[in-house]
Sequence to fold (206 residues):
Amino acid sequence: MFPPTDDPHPEYHDPNAPDTLYATKPPWDIDRPQPAFTALAAAGALRGRVLDLGCGTGEHALLAAGLGLDATGIDQSAQALELARHKAAERGLQARFVRHNALDLAALGETFDTVLDCGLFHLFDGADRVALVDGLATIIAPGGRYFLLGFSDRQPGTWGPHRLSRTDIESAFTDGWRLDSLEPATLDILPSPTPVAAWLAALTRQ
Fold:
């Protein structure tokens, strides 16, 4: 979620890149769902087949599985996916975890009703951002929803990933999308007790 900005996620471009993101516990791996997504679940916004995009160790896929939903998580880190499977087994939850490149979503050959994105969209710009959005259009069923939680330009400093502006989000989702809401939110990270500023966007595929 917050790797160095000069090469945010080399494994999305090189599937053979060393799998080192989880060699030590990264700051985004907080061992629970983000509060913004917990609130969505409580409001009944998670429905149907759910995909946790860039799932890491699986907390949001497991949140959906805990609601009895068909839950899948994808990530490029084999270490993270193994941890996610271990959590699922420990908690007695059924969720599927697949190693897959988020920049080639069409290759999944599946459709989903709800897609959750915690800290992935803000890693990409330019052609990679276009590829991600184009891929989302192939996997989200008409009427399905995409929930994006990402770093906000309201967050001070320069550390971490790209800080998203409202315009970054609004301009990325035009034809075939309806922006239902775009609200200030927060992201919890470790070890800081203070959440970082984020945007929470809710979009519907038309």
About this structure: The longest helix spans residues 78-91.
